[in-house]
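Dear Dr. H.,

I hope your travels went smoothly. While you were away I took the liberty of generating a structure for the chain from your last submission, since the lab meeting agenda had it listed for discussion. I wanted you to have the full record in hand beforehand rather than looking at slides cold. The sequence, exactly as received, is reproduced here:
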Amino acid sequence: MDLGIAGRTALVCAASKGLGRGCAEALAREGVAVTICARTEATVRQAAAEIGAATGREVRWVACDITTPQGRAAVLAACPQPDILVNNAGGPPPGDFREWDRDTWIRALDANMLTPIELIKATIDGMIERKFGRIVNITSSAVKAPIDVLGLSNGARSGLTGFIAGLARKVARQGVTINNILPGSFDTDRLRSNMVLRAKAADKPVEDIARAAQQANPSGRFGTPSEFGALCAYLCSTHAGYITGQNLLIDGGAFPGTF
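The corresponding predicted structure, in token form, is as follows:
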């Protein structure tokens, strides 16, 4: 299927690895001019080169902390008028809410709620003027099924979800769609590091913890970044113009509800 977005421009955040990289690569394969960002220069530069080699497209990169005003200014200087914006940032750490002070909460809100809103504010008017825009926010399955130890993520990402629900309906007539993708367990560095922590806590081999987690999923496995990227690319396509304000769960069937 031709997604109809060749020649468009995209800004993909936190895209040096994992789900962000899956999105960047999927968009580049469709002929989109992609700019990626991440914190570590060597990592993001290498990712851009590898995505470019795999897709035959030049991928621009910016090394920055997207959660800071300086970081956002840097990426917007490199890609000032994207047609496609993919918001992504690493999730805050797990823990007990009794241990989180105001600064901890503000860091979580900055990364997982306020930064996406700031990037949307900086780019959406240009999308409206061009009568085309696609904004995809990578959130978490925890928005739909909260995880008790991930209270920081539950709160910050749910706040973003509520904001998007209103904004998406205001801009749909101008050809701009805004959707959220809610990933479950995907084979990423973050999942592997969490598995290591769980294995240490349970005094079990990491392989046993990972195998049990996979078998607990109806699919019997973890998702892949390329699968996630394919969904993102479709939401950014010309075919998805009637999909907006939605929270799309991609978790192998882990969520047991009907709705």
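Two observations you may find useful: Helices lie at 18-29, 41-55, 69-78, 102-130, 151-171, 189-202, 206-216, 225-235. The two ends are 29 Å apart (CA to CA).

With kind regards,
E. W.
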